[in-house]
Specification:
By secondary structure, the chain is mainly beta. The protein has 6 helices and 20 strands. A hairpin with a 3-residue loop joins strand 14 and strand 15.
């Protein structure tokens, strides 16, 4: 089988969600409070479905178990990555994620290191990225006293910005921001603060202060990023991040670009434009909002047209 796996994702309604997944990507969304599309996912809480070819109708988690040869006979029990598009109509909660050790012991699933490519941002939009506490005791005191303006580190953002968010990083996506998120396959989130918001049933959402204090990195330190960009007549390529969890690349293609596999499988999300994916003599139309995996059976392919893509593949420890 030398064909891509195009995927239908799962939408998630959120208290902070909006309708831009419809207006910007032409998806059919469940409501005007749609916060996330789990676009490439094998997580039990929202697995993607294969749209084409021999495995049409199967979910990605099923395929991971039944056909490991498509993924290079991996050692991992679960598909390790999850790609989302997030529409933050309102501020997300201030939160933090555990590492693998804490996540597996406490929650029975992987930790959650992630990264964000900013697709769009209203003027004046900000994210929370880190904190100002110097010790865990100071962090606890500032949380207890509700000194959020003093504690939280806010950063203005614009379309095209990129942020690497390792586990242990206090963070929040601010209102008016759309991102493409590449993360470990985990749904564990510890809320530190949620602006005292009230849900439809009149209750406040649960906070997880004890777990948050246990997993937060103190003091915060921005991870080193070494973005590398190279350009040809037909494309601009930027290596956004490479670590033990994932490698993420940005591609802007204007013409024809040939690729050779450097990983057992790779994930692609088209965030703008349209074109064709060519594998041997077969052509597949692709456009903004499409998501697909190139499995281990595909060693060479060509992308042509005018395309802006975010691609990811499993990190080095997973190969």
């Amino acid at each position: 089988m030398k064909e891509p796996l195009f995927l239908k994702g799962v939408f998630k309604e959120k208290i902070w969600g909006g309708s831009k997944l419809q207006s910007q990507f032409n998806y059919t969304i469940p409501s005007s409070k749609t916060g996330e599309l789990w676009a490439i996912s094998a997580h039990k809480n929202g697995p993607s479905t294969i749209l084409n070819g021999e495995y049409q109708g199967s979910t990605l988690d099923e395929l991971w178990q039944s056909n490991p040869e498509l993924f290079g006979e991996p050692d991992e029990a679960v598909f390790p990555l999850l790609t989302k598009i997030i529409d933050a109509e309102d501020d997300l909660s201030v939160q933090v994620h555990p590492d693998d050790s804490y996540g597996l012991e406490k929650e029975g699933e992987l930790g959650k290191t992630e990264c964000w490519y900013i697709l769009a941002a209203d003027e004046g939009s900000e994210i929370v990225y880190g904190h100002h506490a110097q010790t865990t005791e100071e962090l606890e005191e500032m949380i207890t006293q509700g000194e959020w303006d003093k504690l939280l580190r806010r950063i203005p953002v614009k379309a095209g910005d990129f942020f690497y968010v390792p586990s242990g990083t206090i963070h929040a996506i601010g209102s008016g921001i759309m991102i493409l998120e590449t993360q470990q396959s985990s749904d564990t989130t510890y809320r530190v603060y949620d602006y005292d918001r009230i849900q439809d049933d009149g209750s406040e959402r649960e906070l997880h202060i004890i777990d948050s204090l246990a997993v937060t990195t103190v003091p915060h330190k921005d991870p080193a990023l070494n973005l590398k960009t190279d350009q040809t007549d037909s494309c601009t390529h930027t290596l956004l991040v490479e670590n033990p969890f994932f490698k993420v690349d940005e591609w802007t293609i204007n013409g024809n670009v040939d690729f050779t596999a450097s990983s057992p499988y790779s994930l692609y999300s088209i965030v703008a434009g349209e074109g064709k994916l060519v594998i041997e003599s077969d052509e597949y139309n692709c456009k903004k909002g499409d998501h697909f995996i190139l499995p281990a059976t595909v060693n060479e392919w060509t992308l042509k047209g005018n395309l802006h893509l975010i691609a990811s593949q499993p990190g080095k420890v997973n190969q």
